[in-house]
Amino acid sequence: MTIKNIFFDFDGVVAESVSAKTDAFREMYLPYGKSIADEVVDYHINNGGVSRYEKFKYWEKKFFDKELSDLEVEKLANRFSELVLNKVVESEEVKGCKSFLENYHQKMNFWVITGTPTKEIRIIVAKRNLDKYFIELCGSPENKKYWTEYLIEKHNLNREETLFLGDATTDKDAAEYSKLKFALRLNEENKEIFKDFSGFRFNDFEELERSLIEKNMI
Fold it and tell me: PANTHER family given for it (predicted)?
């Protein structure tokens, strides 16, 4: 079946920006001690793609038994954005990504589905000069399962012709929930999490393109 639609996660798929967010979370919680900062990083790595809003709620409850108000969550998220936005904008691309986007964006339909807030991913993608390649940029507070179903319905997409490129369990879960094809982008932070994954995987976009051609998917 030929692929006509691709949903891209962003961090770790389009940009090598996973470590930028890991470092920012560590920086925010290191004042409370190394053990808490280490737990924060471990949870973040094992729950990639979960929005920062949900992560902050979880950590504040777990470590400080604190139920955050919406305003308090927003303050933490804004501080995180200040730490991380420029690092993400300036991070390296995943090898071959921009060439893939340039070569195929007129042959296929592309969207971003990310745990990053929608308003923030719009800034990041624009500053990286990638916005012309994507029909829509979809982020938190809505989760990825919401967005896959929303886009399928909005654009009347054939699920069998739609591929989700991700590097986190939330990406895989969303693809499975919406009955889409899934390709795992491997990186240093997820290789242990996906050590037993035997499905479609790729290290960079040159490898992805070769695999799609070999599978007669493009």
Answer: PHOSPHOGLYCOLATE PHOSPHATASE
